[in-house]
Amino acid sequence: MATLPPDWTPAPAALKGRTVLITGATGGLGRASALACAEAGATVILLGRKVSALEKLYDEIEALGGPAPAIYPLNLEGATPADYEELAATVEREFGGLDGLVHAAAHFAGLQPLREFKPEEWMRVLQVNLNGPFLLTQALLPLLQQSADASVVFVQDDPARGSKSFWGAYGVAKAALGALAGILHDETDSSSVRITTLLPPPMRTALRRMAYFGENTLERPEPAEFAAAMVYLLGAEGAAARGQVLDLRTTH
């Protein structure tokens, strides 16, 4: 486990000159990370399902006055390997390279026993939370390897909680995602691509409300409080956390 250096804050141009693609860009942590990366000088590619939400975020980032962002609408539930290859070709054509990839997209079907899990929903959860990150990383890896310093960040959930009753396909996918990150790290450890995982504490998100509907989610911190950690992992200083899980739970 790695920890964020005490009182660390991003420098104004910490990600200047870097191009970063963020999945789930209009979700809680994805949106906060996109804004933080843009403020740190990155060119941000916003990937998500809903064009209207992507356009709204695009306008917010453009108003910051930094590099113009880009939007790439894609529904991970139905995306095929060909779709990811087309995405990679578009990124190469439009941006000439890629320096960062953030897997912030998530799909949660709610708490339910395995015996009641519908097969279609099981496949949908695994597609978004596990197959999508693998296929997207595989498609973009050649571009990332061309960067002098590239970073792939997986967003994890509490592994102790995810293996408990009723977490179903989401818990399985997150456990497998940890294994995926470990294998990728082993295979890229001598390259310019570093693999890290971000483990935030419980946040004020829609997923949290679905899982803990009796909880006052307003008591949880906003995802924006943890966006600086994403900038850290994507920037040069994040090399210190290479191959590790950056655990933010100790600060909350």
UniProtKB/TrEMBL annotation:
<dbReference type="Pfam" id="PF00106">
    <property type="entry name" value="adh_short"/>
</dbReference>
<protein>
    <submittedName>
        <fullName>SDR family NAD(P)-dependent oxidoreductase</fullName>
    </submittedName>
</protein>
<comment type="similarity">
    <text>Belongs to the short-chain dehydrogenases/reductases (SDR) family.</text>
</comment>
<dbReference type="InterPro" id="IPR020904">
    <property type="entry name" value="Sc_DH/Rdtase_CS"/>
</dbReference>
<dbReference type="InterPro" id="IPR002347">
    <property type="entry name" value="SDR_fam"/>
</dbReference>
<keyword id="KW-0560">Oxidoreductase</keyword>
<dbReference type="InterPro" id="IPR036291">
    <property type="entry name" value="NAD(P)-bd_dom_sf"/>
</dbReference>
